[in-house]
Write a structure and sequence with these properties.
7 strands, alpha/beta, 9 helices
Length: about 250
């Protein structure tokens, strides 16, 4: 999606729903993103800090960058000791060669890669790397497929589908896929959908109707304890910058 897509500027309206409803990341993907042992990491498009909290204590320093003021406020409530700066993938407010890794979770599809890739390469040290991650709902699960069909009826988009492609500033991309199951309450499932950009953009009546239908759909799959097992495939992508020879 283009960086100037108006839906991408509205996440702050649902920052608390985002924090309550969006799943964390499986430990295996965090291990993979940090396998090249960076010391200084930038979390780009950090949102409420879903990935950031997994980086703290595992690297020497973390700086978060997030364009939305509402999301930055929610981030500061969860991670008050982590620096978070206003910025975008196209304009990262950090000096040249100041990071070993730039990571982005659920965010790279909002940037213009033709502008963001040179900016990321500027911030990275030679041989530093860009790592991207998405939690995609597993559409092979009939319950998930029905949920996505429900969203499409309201003109929204399913989570899965975007696949990045790095340009010549980066070495060939490495890819990993990790299937896993997130256990959530019914209301957390509703919050997960409420925090989607296209749902935020719906009119109030359509939004309430959709969320009521999502709640009923979640209840249909809930256990006796009121929990829903939501299947995901977490997809990770990483590549080092190309270091000039000679």
């Amino acid at each position: 999606m283009p960086a100037n897509d108006p839906h991408g500027r509205r996440f702050g309206e649902a920052a608390q729903a985002y924090e309550r409803g969006r799943p964390d990341y499986p430990p295996a993907i965090v291990d993979w993103l940090l396998e090249w042992t960076p010391r200084r990491v930038v979390d780009l498009g950090a949102g409420t800090g879903k990935l950031t909290r997994d980086l703290v204590g595992r690297v020497e320093s973390v700086v978060a960058v997030e364009p939305d003021a509402g999301m930055r406020t929610a981030f500061a409530q969860v991670l008050p000791d982590v620096v978070i700066l206003p910025g975008t993938g196209e304009r990262i407010p950090l000096p040249d060669a100041s990071a070993d890794a730039v990571l982005a979770s659920q965010a790279w599809h909002w940037v213009d890669p033709d502008r963001a890739e040179p900016e990321v390469a500027r911030v990275l040290v030679p041989g530093g790397y860009l790592g991207l991650v998405w939690n995609d709902r597993d559409e092979s699960d009939p319950w998930i497929a029905q949920l996505s069909h429900l969203l499409e009826e309201f003109g929204t988009s399913p989570d899965a589908g975007y696949r990045p492609a790095f340009g010549p500033l980066f070495a060939p991309m490495e890819v990993i896929e990790i299937p896993w199951t997130h256990v959530a309450s019914v209301e957390a499932v509703v919050d997960m959908i409420a925090s989607r950009s296209y749902v935020i953009a719906l009119g109030e009546a359509d939004q309430q109707t959709l969320l009521d239908l999502v709640r009923a759909h979640a209840l249909s799959a809930a256990s006796t304890s009121g929990e829903v097992s939501v299947r995901y495939v977490t997809r990770g992508y990483r590549a080092r910058t190309v270091v000039a020879q000679g």
